[in-house]
Amino acid sequence: MAAPAAPAPAPAPSTAPAPAQPWQPSRLTMLATMALSLGLMLALLLACRTRQGRAAQQRLARALAEREAERRLTDIAANLPGALYRLVRAPCGRLTCTYMSEGMNTLLGEPSGSSARASILRALTPETRARAEAALQHSATTLTPLVLEGDVRTADGRRLWLRTMASVHPLPDGSVVWDGVLLDSTEQRQAEERATLLAREVDHRAKNIMAVVRSLLLLTPRDVPPAQFVASLDGRLCAMARAHDLLAGG
Predict the structure, then answer these.
(1) Theoretical Cys-Cys bridge with 86: which of 29, 99, 118, 142, CB 3.0 to 4.6 Å?
(2) What ranges do the domains of the chain cover?
């Protein structure tokens, strides 16, 4: 009987290193990472909201300050004669009235609360409008103060003379700004016209008197002694004075 086969020898243990297992984060690590990311996102969002909130607060503060300044200016303008205004000329040449006090409606006889800017545009005569455009162009070019006088028509058809004086200054963007005042110069203008008329009348009468005296001199004989010449001229002048008294007395 044959002997049983000998068992195969066992394989020698391998000395090669086992393959590394991939690292898998634990659930706690994942939660910590998510919490950290969420915290960073919340911090960034809060910082952004904080900056936006500060910017909004600054804009609101500026708007409130501008509104308060305009209110104070309106209160001051209400106690001043005439009207205050601000004109802005853009680099493209467009002219905008950014402020006009209520005094303009008072000057032009417009109802209280009406648009003062629209009121002055309606009241300007074509001649005054043309002169104003030329004066503004000159002031913007030379940066010299604006001084202008012109006539306007009020809501009830009256003719008024307005005089304006405005300071001028440029802005960094190339715009030009005028801050000025409009005053009613009608009485002054009428007084000047009366003074001019009176001066012309006085000049006319003086020339008439000179002509009369010259006529008397020509009518008085000159080939007589000086005493007789003076007496004759004096008599003629006295006669003219008596005639004037009779005419003036009625």
Answers:
(1) 99
(2) 36-79, 81-185, 191-249
